[in-house]
Fold each of these.
Amino acid sequence: MALVEVENMWFHYPRARLGAGVEGWTLQDISVQVQAQSTLGIVGESGSGKSTLIRVMCGLLRHQRGVVRFDGRDIAGLSGRDAVDRRQRNQMVFQNPRRSLDPRMTIRRSLSEPVRALLDRSPDDTEMTGWLERVGLGPDVLPRFPHQLSGGQLQRIGIARSLSVNPTILYADEPVSALDVSVQAQVLNLLMDLREQLGLTLVMVSHDLGVVSRMCAEIVVMRHGAVIESGPTEVVLGAPATDYTRALLHAARAASLEREGAEG
Amino acid sequence: MLELDDLRVHIGGHEIVHIEHLSLEPGSRLGLVGESGSGKTMTAKAVAGLLPDEARVSGSVRFNGRELLAMNDRQMSEVRGRKIGFVFQDPARSLNPMMRVGRQVSEAIRVHSELPRAAVARKVVALLEQVQLPDPPTLMRRYPHQLSGGQQQRVMIAAAIAADPEFLIADEPTTALDVTVQEEILRLLISLSEQRGMGVLFVSHDLGVIRFVCDRVAVIYGGAVVETGRTEDVIAAPRHRYTAALLAANPGMPRDDNFRAFIGQRLHTIPGSVPPVGTFPSGCRFRNRCVAASEACTAMPGVLDAGDGHRYSCWNPVEGL
């Protein structure tokens, strides 16, 4: 059984104008499976629905048609303790940590929030220091505010925050696109290491095919709210079946360096 | 066409830029590459005369033989726009949200010329066509929020070239865009540069993008050029340890579509991070992050020549292949 099963799922934002066909639906008839401890990359252009899809999978948005199951259970039917439990096990890392952390809160407060909200207790500094260590930061950041830290440090805090509630699956929405090449490399390596150490399942949205193909063994290509191609990364990107995927690859190659896998 | 000599920028008592020498031939494209905080954007701003008021600038920036640093604000604003155009990273923030697209471009024309109204309107349409926007007569009546990110960046480029500048400064013009749109915008910049013989100073942290656009590259760290040369030479055989580290950290795309070998491959990282202004070490500024640092690096390295204008300043360079 897959950890996450999405079956014929449709989603529209509130007040979308729905036509008889696919108009108005941000996601149309999506079916995706994520195996436990696997790595799935979702690629496509802006507006293709990739960020919306992981928000539905993560339970941040409620779909209208079809089924989304987590660990075998329909997420729409969960309530009470089961719903909180599912939230705890599904965590998200956002694109822009400067915007996703509250600028008026100290890092101590932001970092402790998921545990306070989901586990109903207040973590102490010793525990939070452990979380920070895991992402390569020291306890000196605890009393600071977001504006006092760099983008790379903030993204590490975003990751530490998501991991604080011991999730099973981590959704990362363009986690490095707001960062410099050198900081990107640090954050990507960190995500790879943590995934292995903690046995996490990783679902990652990125427009950067080079990044996705390093991080993810499976890939889903989205266009106009639908999945147009999916499968092992080496098949989908190595021998694409659609012109659209070929066009994405062509554009990515044009402005990228060629690298040997083994160098990496 | 553009020549920088001993250009120094001081802000708050710290020297944040010191470019000994850098030049750009007419019609050629030079990339400035480095991490955030390396000084690449400050260098571009110094050329453009767009530094904050508290900055003190010395040395020389000559544009077609004229000294830009000696110009007053009025002379400089004449040069900007008419001779030098600009394109910035985030088109949504650079365009005026309250102003129709056509007006933003026509203002850029009118500031620098006395053309009659009808001629300005014709020129706006021609410019929007040149940046390959669809249906210019309709599009010029739209507001920026009604356009996609790629279309907004094309409007920015149309405004930047409205006064037919000889030279364009583009600061990370595609980092906010999708990969397909990025390629289109980069191709547009290249073709405009070639058609008009327009020089380009292109700022980016991504050597992949620089390789696509630029004939030459200058790698900047600690406000100084650490390596420069033809882009292909510098990327194929970097000599400075910072250039090599930047290349190794770049995710890139797998050679020969060998995705199988790529999955799970970690990236090389550059140890530490760019130090805050004023805290770079003496001697080679990169030495506290460098894997090959030695005693020698406490002294400032001289400039070495690897041939064909490929120059670098490093005590322990990467060996040539």
Amino acid sequence: MSKEWPLWEVFIRGQHGLNHRHVGSLHAPDAEMAILNARDVYTRRNEGVSIWVVKSVDITASSPSEKGPLFEPSNSKVYRHPTFYDIPEEVGHM
Amino acid sequence: MYAQLVSTDGLKKPEEMTPEERAFQERIDRGEKIEPKEWMPEGYRKTLIRQIGQHAHSEIVGQLPEGNWITRAPTLERKAILLAKVQDEAGHGLYLYCAAETLGVSRDELMELLHKGKMKYSSIFNYPTLTWADMGAVGWLVDGAAIMNQVPLQRTSFGPYSRAMIRICKEESFHQRQGYAIMMKMASGTPAQKAMAQDALNRLWYPSLMMFGPSDKDSVHSAQSMAWKIKMNTNDELRQKFVDQTVPQAEYLGLTVPDPNLKWNEEKGGYDFSEPDWSEFFDVIAGNGPCNKDRLGARVKAWDDGAWFREGLVAHAEKAAARKAPVAAE
Amino acid sequence: MPSLPDMNTPDVAELARGAAAASRATEVPTPDAGQEAFFEALLRIGDSTLILGHRVSEWCGHSPALEEDIALANVALDLIGQTQMWLGLAGEVEGKGRSADDLAYLRDAWDFRNLLIVERPNGDFGHTLMRQFLFDAYHLELLKALAGSSDPRVAEIAVKAAKEVAYHLERSSDLVIRLGDGTDESHRRMQAALEALWPYTGEMFLSDEKDAEAAAAGRIADPASLRPAWERTVRDVLGAATLTIPEGAFAHKGGKRGVHTEHLGYILADMQFLQRAYPGATW
């Protein structure tokens, strides 16, 4: 089998100014082609105004086995959420 | 469905499971998503590769019967709609191959397995599209049947597969409707058009029912897949749902479903209907459908003829990177 | 399709008369002569996008990689959309009640006005890309010129189409460069494609009296005027692709006056089959 085109992860920023969001992957021989391919594959329905591509192998991910230590501690920090605080209705929207 | 006859070993009972397997099953039962880097039983991984791969192959082989008619579409608008739809199928194949790749198999490897006949694709795409009405019937019946299966698969346990299905379902929503819109035009058109529409229904009805796979009583291997939530409904459940949904749509068109035994069953709240000819199904799966050789031949030709193109682009990318490297080091 | 203003702008007849008078001072122009040349010019554009869109769509399901399959379908979709606009406007200008579909599906080959290059068979993928590049480079210059048309309907279509075609050119020139400068085999195939297609490029820039008439009215660009910019693009891209531009200046021609290659008949046999087999049916 001949050499495969590497896999790229595609991130697109939509019309409304939100952050780039991961939308999927594709194959391309290099970054420039990956951008063009992403335009053709992932913006067919007018989804985006900006594209990022990253080689899949260059992504460092958190380890699944550390899910507990990484993410559970924030569960108990309820005071970070606005609903933690009771504000009398007379005060109005806050 | 698009992944027919994906078999697994028998269902394991909790007491036969290792602690890891039990914990894995519990996560699935709680509705958690399994992500690629997480531990999973080898059987889960293998079954998923086969199922997602088969699904992806079905999408790209599925381009061919409709692709047939792109150059013969009767108006510019129909041509654009059909082309956009067949293009979507390429996109869906692409998303699914990427989902399979997260399990440690590459797209080119999967392609090679397809080309060598070691992986299958849905039986439906081995039937020919003979008239323009088939473009309507394929959208209406084949996409209709596929959607039955794909909508629940959005909740499948494997994260990348689930996300691919969500995207696919969103894009597919116009496919069945455009098919039905063609059928409406044909059924209310000239006598020849109406006859063409009826003929398409006659030819594609039973092959569509076959898409759901053999009856549950003959399909012993689905229990494990259901437990793993990579198969969400039984074959018979989905087939019944499809018939119940489709018969009134056929009536609206003024077309007759080619089944003398079709009858509403008040008691079960669904239609009684004839089983397809399962010996035909197994013939098609074994490679003896009307178009198996043509379909696979077209895929192999596309791949082989394109090898120089794919290699040429790799060679250029390498040259360009080499030219760039010394500059970047300065 | 965007809603377009009525064709009977007050100055049309005036412009036509003025233009005709300027080019052939001794002839007395008939009032609708300008319209006929205009109709003809629109067919030349719309038929080229129609036939090229048709050819490109033949790849759907058969391309060397999924990403390319999807990208080429986008090109074909753009071209079909442009065809609907150009032929729609042509029908309007003709004033005989013919729709874009009527023009596409109910004319015979000798009434088609597309360039010969677009009806050439696809060949291998490199051949298709080379044809696309040579056409895109011309197409973009054409649309840039048409954006300044004296007819606002032409200008409006051209502005929209130019955005699509700028991307087509970006992609096709990129691929031509990469494949020309790829492996020995990809280089050889691209050079062969260039040599096979080169004699079909000259027709893009030939002007006849109908072009001259429409150009004089300011509606349509004079084809010859597009050549220098096209040559610059082609020289730059083919140079970067390490490909050698053929020396011959011979140009096949005839498409613009309805004398085609044998291939067009087969394209139409495919394309028009349903409309011909079931006359009067709606789809």
Amino acid sequence: MSKPVGIVRFLGTNCDRDVWEAVENLDLTPQWLWHADTFTPDDYSAFVVPGGFSYGDYLRCGALAAKSPVMQSLKEAAEKGLPVLGICNGFQVLCEAQLLPGALVRNEGRKFVDKWVELKLENSNAWSNLERGAKIRLPVAHGEGRFYVEPAELTRMKERGQIWWTYASENPNGSVENIAGVSNIQKNVCALMPHPERAMHEWMGGDDGRAIMGALLRA
Amino acid sequence: MTEQELADKLKKYRLSRGEYGMMQKLLGRDPQGVEWALFSALWSEHCSYKSSRVHLKKFAFRSSRVLQSMGENAGVIDLGHGEKVAFKMESHNHPSFIEPYQGAATGVGGILRDIFTMGARPIALANYLCFGRPQAERMSAIVDGVVAGISGYGNCVGVPTVTGQTEFHESYDKNVLVNALAVGLFTESDPIVTSNARGVGNLVVYVGAKTGRDGVHGASMASEAFGEDSASKRPTVQIGDPFYEKLLIESCLEVMKENLVVAIQDMGAAGITSSSFEMAAKGGVGLRLHLDQVPLRDSSVGPEEILLSESQERMLLVCEPKKLEAIQEVFHRWGLDASVLGEVIKGPEIELFWKKDLICKIDPKLLTDHAPMYERPYEPWVPKRKRDALETTALKLEELLSSAEGCSRRWIYQQYDQRVGAKTVRDCDDSIAIQRLPSGRGLGLVLGCRPSLMRVDAQLGGYDAAFYPSLELAAKGFQPLALTDCLNFGNPEKPEIMGEFVAAVEALADASKLMNAPVISGNVSFYNETLNRNITSTPATGVVGLRDSIEGIPRSQFVNDGDEIVLWRLPAVKFTSDQFGREAAFSGALDPEMTSRWLMEVFQMGLSKHVSASRVVGKFGLGYALYRMCGEELGAKVATGAWAEAPGDFYQERLYEVLLSGPAGLLEEVTPRAGRTGSEAWKIGTVTKGVLSLGSDTKDLKGLHELYRSGWRKHFPGLS
């Protein structure tokens, strides 16, 4: 039997159960990774840091979560090259934990925004094996999803192929160069603002989320 | 006590002289100390329903699906397959006008607690909002704050907001309505937990946020009309913390699922007073409570403030002593404290202690069961029909689409997380919200009540508040199962307001009985009156429906080019409106019995594979409904005919009409159903690309979309 998929759970995380269902839906075994505990990276095949809010997003989105014990183990896992996916708030947490470059700030429109968006694949990595330029539709739901990174770092990210997804038509938050998702240099740690776990079935409005969550089957 | 002292006391505690007399009689003496605060809170209109209880008994009808109803925190219905849902709607009108963000946010928090207190996991939120005219004083800021409050709380706590209704009218200029509805799901292994305290020697445990001074006298504030000084009431508004609420949801559901609690109740209006007194009164037991053990935000908060505080995100539970440790373990894991306040004692009295001193000993039933119940005088209902027809109907579709009343609400609902929980099948874009149940079936939810109808006829408006949302469910193949209501009215001491209340309640009760969809929970909000101006009587409703499969549900917009469009009409009541405020004239009478039979036929059609899209014709009539069925590309070509002889007929409202579209042969399927129910059906047109034609008037779809989508910006330039 394959190793379980670890799902990180902070106080107040609210997309945890949705990711759990998506993982079960792929006939894989999810397992909680509680914020206050550490774990052994090799016991897991892959990791998901779910979205929603953590610690009420007080102080700064992801800031408190990034300092919790579970993140120590997650950093080890990332260094070992295990696949780590951050979704929405999980993206913010991974940036705060410096596992990913850049930061996510208040949407340009200042309001929370929930809508379906079109995404374009800029570079493939551990979490997507579509052709470059492939387009998918996923829903976003965030108030602080505007990716920002210093211009010099952005240039380096582009050279290294760290830009994962961009918003293909409408940019819902004003992110720099329409960036919707990025990866680390090794490309095992990846994160995006849209929610693939909310697009697993046609009845949800689309099943393109499988293009990302499906990577768990290869992990 | 001198006469002046008594007058001051009564004013401070918002009690009447008659009520003072009742208190003396029940106690056999003058009330003392904190007793004043207790009576003030529990005898407030908000807690006691003293003006409405007599009439709410009219909602006594129950169906076989009802597991819990009035008297508990929320109603619960059985869906079969081991699934049950709890749902309820509640108002937070007064606080939202005073302090829009926190007022709306804590309205969401409060209704969620009513749901998870019973052991159900909240799966959906909805809101019914009535605002004043966009240009009214503060209105733009109120709209901004209310929506941000709902969004800020609901999104953070992780419950999707899936549908809503927003109205604008001058009668809400000084008194907006913010009604929140929540639905919770029980799966097979989740117990329904009630609030009656039991078992002498069991412990009373306080869980959640610390108690502060916020919301002291909130319940009695909400039971008063507003004057000029509403801003000075800001300190009575509570402050919400959705993060705490999320922790409470997870921890409370866990202790309930593990059967660690005997009873549980959230601290809502009138805080710890109402929760403890209601738990004791319902269970027929006494309680000994040490108020000095209540966790405080500030050590200077005294016993009376503790009793009246409406600090949010707090729960009171009763458990067996041997289970305390396990309960504390769960709450600590979720970062929360659980403190023992006291114990269950032999009834009937509640003993309140403050630092070892007994400060009050009282039978809770004096405050709950013996609360005043008024049979307020009311004017018997008479229809306020002044005219049968209006001179002209100069409405134009373009004006409707860009009006505040008719334009897109996307600015609002785009701020709501509509998908967290991964159950959303249809979101706020649709005419009904649909959540997928674990069994694979669909749970539908629609809100109702059209203030424009209430303004002309409270009885008709009351029927419509039940029928219209139920029809929307039926048109998608969902069977309406049960209703919740939030009855927003003005000053009940005015006979004409009370007359509208009684008429609306009786109509709602009758409609729900005819549809076999009982009213199982709700809330009454009186005194929606500012400076002697009452709001439009607004009995908002939420209807829950069930469909066996989520496959093949009709869309709300046209699906295929060339599909035929069928209009199916129950020819009962016809309206003619002359302005956006829609002071309508109308003719005809509604036959409730016929309407409910027709509704079942609509439900059967909603299940038909032949129907690709459906929509109930509502505000502004047929032309507006046809526009709302147009997609980005697909429009419609509709002819004039028996259904609309003159162009103005496209803007008449009728009770009731349903639009269906589907491949050729659709009309043949509808016709026999129409024949059986005394209704009429016609093929009125076909789905076409790029335009909407109403008779000879052809409009470019792109232009209409632009008007519909930019309307909000036009009315609220500061908000987009």
Amino acid sequence: MAVIQVENASKIYRIGEVETRALDGVDVSVDAGEFMALVGPSGSGKTTLLQIMGCLDKPNTGSVKINGQDVTRFNANQRADLRRDVIGFIFQFFALVPVLSAYENVELPLLLSGASAKERRQRVMQMLEAVGLADRAHHRPDQLSGGQQQRVAIARALAPKPLMVLADEPTANLDTANGQQAMEIMQRLNQETGAAFIFATHDPRVMSYARRTVTMRDGHIVSNGQALG
Amino acid sequence: MTLAKLWTIGFRDLMRNRRRSFFTLLAVALGLALLIVLNGFITGVFDDAIQNSIRLQTGHVQLRAPSYSDEKMSLLWADLLDNPAELVAQAQSVAGVQVATPVLWASGIVATPDDSAGLRVYGIDPASAFYEPLRAGLVAGAFPAADDRSGIVIGQRLANNLGLHVDDNVSLTVVNADGEPVEGAFTVRGIFSTGVVTYDESALFMPLAKAQAFTRTDGHASAIIMMLDAQDKADAVAAALAMPNVKALTWRDLNQVMIQSVESGMGFYVILDAIVIMIVAVIIANTLLMAVFERIREMGILAALGMKGRQIITMFVLEAAILGIAGIVLGVLIGLGGVSYLVNTGLYVGDMAGSTPGVPLGATIYAAYAPGLFANLALWTLLIILLASLYPGWFAARREPAEALHML
């Protein structure tokens, strides 16, 4: 069953008189538990598609259905609720809140969803253990390596038990070993939690982890890929 | 999301740029301290002026003839009280009245061979407790006895201006009850200093009997002045002394012009308060806007995690509250320090104290503690600071998360 369906989505950015068509009639559907790579060169529309799938932005035309619900008509608060409850994000630049410890960063989405103190404590430690950082719980981001920060970001994305995790170039700022470690953790958590993972990348090593690859170019999907295994 | 976590984020964000936060906090503190000192000072000026006027001039309650006008200082019998001794006795029988004494006022010109000065002549009972401040303020000579037929007491500034000393003779001219100018020779028996410029340079005191004889107001008085054991009993005492052909005036009525002029002066201070608070608000808004620009990407991250616009606004309001409350605490401490200095040591203004006609100020002006006013200023400062933080908060919250995240 599809957790997200994007139908005929287009997104146009206007900067002054210049118009850029970042997405042009894109159709894509992702099933529960998929581990999917969104690939293509820079400027192909991967990040825009991820942002539209993640309710961080709205398409100019077309629709986005999450769990069968058309979310393009949602207001800002409804979209915020949806991001909080259903979607996890992993960004290229780790995107941790710099003034919060690893523990507090992972706790943040749970606080937003109103989880009890006990639930939060258990879930945060469970997620930090899952990414191998339980002993770094009280370190701030600037006391962690890039690889460790990205693992905290993975733990944070999965803490509220989302239906899907959207990752934009999650290994782009990591060295090979850390990138590999991050991908292995994501792959393992995908299998353990059943959350769908959709990650944008142009790194062939990262693509090799995907069970399905969707290829984009110039705002179009040129290959919708087939799920492997 | 719990407020506690928003407090935590807000506090730590402020600590990220300690220097900026410190200077913003200092701006709040100094702004409020300035307001507290200024308002403490003006309250002190107001209190001083009222108390000086009551102590030296009006008393708490006065009895006058209905037609008596303070500006004209009329000596017509019709404008005067014809039975002062009876009225004093009646006043002294009212509960709360500590002192009741008759007074006769006239305007006059005192002249020496070299100089002259216009002044107010006071015919008084030299033994009355009402004149204790003058007796205590004697710097030379003594008060004349009630039956002294030529003795006068003058202020030190007047004595200095005219080059007079004790036992010097002067000529005094007044327009008497018949409307005719009369001149008499008097001897300076004593020189006083009250510290209040208006009295020290333009008041001349002589025994009531001599004043009545000199002005041909035989047995009459301009007013009966009363001091009470508590200022707030003035209305009750005035009501108790209501009688035909006599009007009872309270210190509020008697100082109406001064109260109005001081209150209109206070209006200027309200405008000044508003300007200072607005400057503080702009500084806070500027600091928070700078923080918004620096942290726009962070706002995108928080929005991506599901934080709503109102929660982002709340976060900035809490940051402003932290800066505001810390600044206000510091400002109150600095301000109270300043007020305390001015309460104890005062500010010497010298002759400037006499530059506001009708406002009897001492040459040294003291501030006063006004806890209610200070609390109001602190609360207004906090309120305006919180309001000023709404714009930066809204500015941060209104962006689409994708737009904020692009600002990497």
